Amino acid sequence: MLIDIVSVFPEYFNVLNLSLLGKAQDKGLLEFKVHNLRDWTHDVHHSVDDTPVGGGAGMVMKPEIWANCLDDLLSIPPLTDIRDADSERGKNSNAILVFPNPSAPTFTQKDATELSHADHLIFGCGRYEGYDGRLPEYYKAQGFDVREYSIGDYVLNGGEVAVSVMVEATTRLIDGFMGNHASIEDESYTGSEGLLEHRQYTKPASWRGMDVPEILLSGHHAHINRFRRDEELRRTSELRPDIIEKLNCRNLDKKDRKLLMELGWNVSGDFPRYLS
């Protein structure tokens, strides 16, 4: 997978050479190219922003600077007018353009899984008041796959943090990235149900007066699996009831149903419903 990242602070991404990301590059699974957006400017100050049309605080990143950069990364000749755009122009491209945006849909494990199958990802890091709103629409009109994501209900100084989150969540799903692929399958949000993961423990079995749950020391794998499943359901019910509400009741076994009813859920319909 080729990952291009565009930022006005490219040095932020020096961490991409560390740990598993660095090893994945050494193995040829990934190739990162980090670009300074200012390299596509033509004025003496290398300015990438201007005042917002209609007034308001802050500065907005210029669409033309971004377009010059993205056209180069996509290896396409520039267009001067959106009316000249051809919706087939991007259909032959294997690139996906990804822009962090606090006003966009939330980035999820499902999105990370989709992106992990791509051949080429281009991440654009916004700054200031963000990029001109015409930018993503321009490339969508040309048939390119453009995604805008938020990583949470808060605002950051720039898109670099959000891009780092999405890159790590995506690349670790690439086949061969993790030494033990089973560790991914057991994690929160990776399964089809998306339940929160059960708590993990290690040696010693007793630490500062706190003991590991006895069932985990039994060696009885069926009982251990049931214990972990129950904890996943309990934790999800307590912390993320919205996930429980999306479970398909037909996929729940008798013990799942019994526990959820004990936790206050009605599981007689298609989806669980909390009894307040």
From TrEMBL:
TM helices/strands, residue ranges: none
Subcellular location, record wording: Cytoplasm
Annotated S-adenosyl-L-methionine binding sites: G126, I151, G152, D153, Y154, V155, L156
Annotated keywords: Cytoplasm, Methyltransferase, S-adenosyl-L-methionine, Transferase, tRNA processing
InterPro entries hit by this protein: Alpha/beta_knot_MTases, tRNA_m1G_MeTrfase_C_sf, tRNA_m1G_MeTrfase_TrmD, tRNA_m1G_MTases_N, tRNA_MeTrfase_TRMD/TRM10
Predominant location: cytoplasm
Residues making up the signal peptide according to the UniProt record: none
Enzyme class: transferase
GO cellular component, as recorded: cytosol
Pfam families with a match to the protein in the record: tRNA_m1G_MT
UniProt EC number: 2.1.1.228
Single GO term (MF): tRNA (guanine(37)-N1)-methyltransferase activity
Reactions performed catalytically: guanosine(37) in tRNA + S-adenosyl-L-methionine = N(1)-methylguanosine(37) in tRNA + S-adenosyl-L-homocysteine + H(+)
GO biological processes: tRNA N1-guanine methylation
Residue ranges annotated for the tRNA methyltransferase TRMD/TRM10-type domain, each copy included: 1-246
Subunit: Homodimer.
Family: Belongs to the RNA methyltransferase TrmD family.
Role this protein plays: Specifically methylates guanosine-37 in various tRNAs.
Protein name, entry field: tRNA (guanine-N(1)-)-methyltransferase
Organism of derivation: Alloscardovia omnicolens F0580
Organism phylogeny: Bacteria, Bacillati, Actinomycetota, Actinomycetes, Bifidobacteriales
